[in-house]
Write a structure and sequence with these properties.
Helix content is 12%, strand content 60%. With 205 residues, the chain is mainly beta. The chain has a single domain, classed as Beta Barrel (Porin), CATH 2.40.160.20.
Length: 205
């Protein structure tokens, strides 16, 4: 119950921060997109690198993949450093899992310029759709990206990086592969540690 309220409060904080960011940027003439508040919408594809699990049947990390939608709203502490809060929806496959990531977003920009490379780090937790089938886990993202303008007020973000996601899932698959009537205790939670390479594109405003 306490965790549910904490997740709810964090989402409310994100939405309020997003509203402040939108209001502050309305009419903002920051031509480099590296001052004050900002918002980012990103779409991503994750290609599995490795998967550690105690599932009874074999699952290959190379077959795993994910699709991601992320929203980030934050503030430039200076032209080279920003911090923000992110929220989104990730769909993992092989095995399937729907998650709502909530995370801290940190970005370091190489130059005080309209077009510049940057590094990013995300740390957070996931909110699951069904607590009876999944447990919320920990996530980490890190990598490099490039911020550039394709038009006077159109700023795009491209990223390549690494994603780590660790959680548990319940499956009605027994660890006892020899019995026709496995005991109840052989059905249990299984851990998943997913590692992926990520490709993302987004819009900053």
């Amino acid at each position: 119950m306490i965790m549910s309220w904490l997740k709810f409060e964090l989402i409310v904080v994100f939405l309020l921060f997003y509203r402040i960011s939108y209001s502050s940027n309305f009419g903002n003439e920051d031509d480099k997109k590296n001052k004050k508040f900002f918002s980012i919408v990103e779409l991503g594809i994750y290609k599995g690198l490795d998967l550690s699990t105690d599932y009874p049947s074999g699952i290959s990390g190379s077959d795993a993949y994910a699709k991601s939608l992320r929203l980030v709203t934050g503030y430039f502490l200076n032209p080279h450093l920003s911090a923000g809060i992110g929220f989104g929806a990730d769909r993992y496959e092989s095995p399937g899992a729907n998650t709502l990531p909530l995370f801290l977003d940190l970005r370091g920009y190489l130059q005080d310029a309209k077009n510049t490379p940057f590094v990013f780090f995300d740390f957070g937790k996931t909110i699951v759709f069904s607590s009876q089938a999944q447990e919320g886990g920990n996530l980490f993202d890190g990598g490099v990206g490039y911020k550039f303008f394709v038009w006077r007020k159109t700023c795009l973000i491209t990223k390549i990086g690494y994603n780590y996601f660790n959680n548990k899932e319940w499956t009605w698959q027994s660890t006892d592969m020899t019995s026709l009537n496995p005991a109840a205790e052989t059905y249990r939670w299984f851990y998943l540690k997913r590692e992926s390479i990520t490709f993302s594109i987004g819009l900053m405003f």
